Amino acid sequence: MDKIERITALHRILKAARYPVTVKRLQDELGCSRATVYRDLAYLRDALMAPIEGDGEAGFRYQSGESDRFELPGLWLSSDELHALLAAQQLLLRTGGGVLSGALAPLQKRIEGLLADHAGGDRWPVERVRVIPHRGRKLDEASFRCVASAVIERKQLAFEYRARSTDERTRRVVSPQRITHYRDNWYLDAWDHGREALRSFAVDRIGNARVLEEAASDLGREELSQHLASSYGIFSGEPKGWATIVFSAKAARWVADEQWHSKQQGRYLSDGRYELKVPYSASRELLMDVLHYGSDAEIVEPKSLREQAKSLLSLALSNYS
């Protein structure tokens, strides 16, 4: 009997027991040693948060009133948990032999142990799972360290910003609020003192960054979240309106399962197509995602966004004339 089977069996025994169960009985029913019984009890209590009470003398059972409410979590990691562990493991491996490798070695072993627990005690076959970065952009590591330091130390930050859309260079002084990892790239959410507004900056476009002595101005968490999460995508802000996009019946199978925005509204139309409504502020990212679907997507409203899409498609088509 492997560890997963033993934990499941142990849970069933304790859940059904009206009186404390002795360690000897647990040994007999689980077919393992006394030490293994204690290890499994500790794992069930500490890792899975089971309401175990008792001791080696009187025996063990679930606390009265808690037995009916407690259930074992799924035997498999969730997709998010698996991705997080594998991504952390690969990130640790990428540190190579640098300063972090020795300090993070215990964490690496802990992650490998967690993966092994959910592989029935065997080594997790990392080579059978791929975590593929997608369209990540190269960072200036010195600038990134300054950005991260300013966020953590709550200091103002000065830097040169090169806008991707216009290639214009400007000097900014900001109060960093948080850094965000989105679509394999880093962004800085900050209060721009020159423009007196919240802005999001792509960290890969930041250069000559310098942490200042002045303390950063902190915005309220609700204000920050409302501004930066109220509209579509990373380039958010107060919503300018709602976009209505209709997808073909073929694309509907994918879009209906996608999360575009926390406040999105979606429904199937009578002909099998799918209508999606999302709030948006800046149109650039929304247009990029809609055009990704090509002929399987049509922006219905608002008219201004529809016209922008038509212009972009016309420009793209002119490249092939």
Automatic annotation (TrEMBL):
<feature type="domain" description="Helix-turn-helix type 11">
    <location>
        <begin position="6"/>
        <end position="61"/>
    </location>
</feature>
<feature type="domain" description="WYL">
    <location>
        <begin position="145"/>
        <end position="211"/>
    </location>
</feature>
<dbReference type="InterPro" id="IPR013196">
    <property type="entry name" value="HTH_11"/>
</dbReference>
<dbReference type="InterPro" id="IPR026881">
    <property type="entry name" value="WYL_dom"/>
</dbReference>
<dbReference type="InterPro" id="IPR051534">
    <property type="entry name" value="CBASS_pafABC_assoc_protein"/>
</dbReference>
<dbReference type="Pfam" id="PF08279">
    <property type="entry name" value="HTH_11"/>
</dbReference>
<dbReference type="Pfam" id="PF13280">
    <property type="entry name" value="WYL"/>
</dbReference>
<dbReference type="InterPro" id="IPR036388">
    <property type="entry name" value="WH-like_DNA-bd_sf"/>
</dbReference>
<feature type="domain" description="WCX">
    <location>
        <begin position="241"/>
        <end position="313"/>
    </location>
</feature>
<dbReference type="Pfam" id="PF25583">
    <property type="entry name" value="WCX"/>
</dbReference>
<dbReference type="InterPro" id="IPR057727">
    <property type="entry name" value="WCX_dom"/>
</dbReference>
<protein>
    <submittedName>
        <fullName>YafY family transcriptional regulator</fullName>
    </submittedName>
</protein>
<dbReference type="InterPro" id="IPR036390">
    <property type="entry name" value="WH_DNA-bd_sf"/>
</dbReference>
